[in-house]
Amino acid sequence: MLNIILSGCNGYMGRVVASIVNKDPDVTIVAGVDIDSRQTSDFPVFKTASEYTGNADVLVDFSSSSALDGLLSFCLSRKIPPILCSTGYSPEQLDAIASAAEIIPVFRSANMSLGINLLADLIRRACSVLGEDYDVEIVERHHRRKIDAPSGTALMLADAAADALQNNPQYVFERQSRRQQRDTREIGISAIRGGTIVGEHEVIFAGLDEVIELRHTAASRDVFAVGAIRAAKFMVGISAPGLYNMSHVLAKI
Question: What is the three-class DSSP state of 58?
Fold first, then answer.
């Protein structure tokens, strides 16, 4: 049985994860962590992870970047691998994650969907084949309540493209102030916010007289919860310190 501490358990994604876990006989939530410490499920809820003294195999975090310091401190002290599913980390926080990964196994992904991570692999392959003869543009769409823009996933996809290109790509987030032709090194990233869109990401490769498009659409947030549980199951078998992500999970499939 896989024992999980669920951080952000009373948030929207936390409730989705709890619902998915309830359908999986191999996984159980032994404790929840949330600033709203009301107990709404059959596991105890604490305001901070440090209040929980029981055993756990992994900690899954769907809270917010502001909770990172306390969660990393707890996981380091208890030698529990964290599954970091939040976005919006500052450069200093990313450094803290990297430092923790030198001591314990740490899993972080800007998007927990297996489909999105497969899309990232396809982007790397496309860029390695198409090269600099094709302009890369990324368009992401999310619900009107999403605060950060562009999405962490859009940046992750841009990074996948940049990794495979040899021309030192530069990210461009807006063009209204740029009265000039598009530079061949640009990767354009556009954000759309509206309605209840769960998440859509489109990657456009525009070349001479032809266009190739790769697209991923999330119809519900369940895909992120399922991916997080799969990541948790993967991390149970990891003992070596390091920074792990969905590409490691995909390699095992």
Answer: strand
Given this model, what pLDDT does residue 46 score?
96
Q: What are the catalytic residues?
A: 142, 146
Identity of residue 252: K
Q: pLDDT tens digits for 37-70?
A: 888 888 999 999 999 999 999 999 999 899 999 9
User: Is 147 a residue whose pLDDT tops 90?
Assistant: no
Angle, alpha carbons 68-71-75 (nearest 5°) = 135
C-alpha to C-alpha distance for 6 and 42, rounded to whole angstroms: 13
Q: Is 193:146 a contact under the CB 8 Å cutoff?
A: yes
Q: What's this model's pTM, rounded to 2 decimal places?
A: 0.84
Residue among 24, 1, 5, 3 at smallest CA distance from 226: 24
Neighbours of 222 (CB within 10 A): 15
